[in-house]
Design goal:
The structure is a homodimer of 126-residue chains. Chain A is mainly β and 126 residues long. Helix content of chain A is 11%, strand content 36%. Chain A has one domain (3-115): Ubiquitin-like (UB roll) (Roll). The N and C termini of chain A lie far apart (43 Å). Chains A, B: In the C-terminal section; belongs to the PRA-PH family.
Amino acid sequence: MSWLDDVRFDADGLVPAIAQEAGTGRILMVAWMNREALAETAATGRAVYWSRSRQRLWRKGEESGHVQTVRELRLDCDADVVLLEVEQLGGIACHTGRHSCFFRRLEDGEWREVDPVLKDPEAIYR
Amino acid sequence: MSWLDDVRFDADGLVPAIAQEAGTGRILMVAWMNREALAETAATGRAVYWSRSRQRLWRKGEESGHVQTVRELRLDCDADVVLLEVEQLGGIACHTGRHSCFFRRLEDGEWREVDPVLKDPEAIYR
C-alpha cells in the first residue's frame, strides 16, 4: 500500500496539480499529473506533470529551464487535487513569460491582462 | 460576445475553480464551475460551483453558512482554470470542518493530517 493509492485519479488517470509559490503564496499554474508524474515529483523534489497535449511526462523546466523545486505536497479532502508548494527557478512559471499563468483579471466584463511579461517567450524557448 | 465565451470549458462543460483566501493566500478548496455557475459568481459576488456529485448548482454556504465572497476572478493562460480570491465566512471552507480542504501533507511516505478540525461537521450540517 503506497500513499499513491490514496490519490483518486480520474477516468483518464489524472489529477489537477496546483503550483503555489513558497513565500509569496502566489498561484503560479495548474497542470495535470498521472501516477507516474506524482511519484517522480515526490521522489526527485522537482515538479513533473503530464502534458495532455503532448501525451507524455513533462518535467517542468526541461525546455525553459524554469524548474520548480517542490517543498511540500498536499492532498485535498476528496483526494482528487494535489497542491504543490514550489520554488520557481527564474521567477517565471508561464509559457507566456509571466510569473504566473493567472495574469488575466475580470474587470468591467472583460479579461484584462494585469501582469507583465518578464521575458520574451522566444528567448525562453530557443 | 461575452467574457464567458473566452473560457474554455471541458467536454463536460466544466472548468476547475480554485478558491484562494484573500489576505492569507491560503488555498481553501478546488471545485468545478459550469458556465452558469461562473456567470452567477461574477454577477452576485458569491462563489457558486457546479456539484458533480449532485449534478446541480452549489451555492457555497447554502447549507453550511460558509459563504465565500469573491473579491477577484482570474483566468489562466490556457483559459481553462479559474482562480477566485475570496473571503471565507466562518473561516471554514472544508466539509470536514477545517479551514482548508488541503489538510493532508505528504510526510515520510504517507499523507498526514496536519490541520485541525475547527468545527464538528455534524454541527455544521444540521
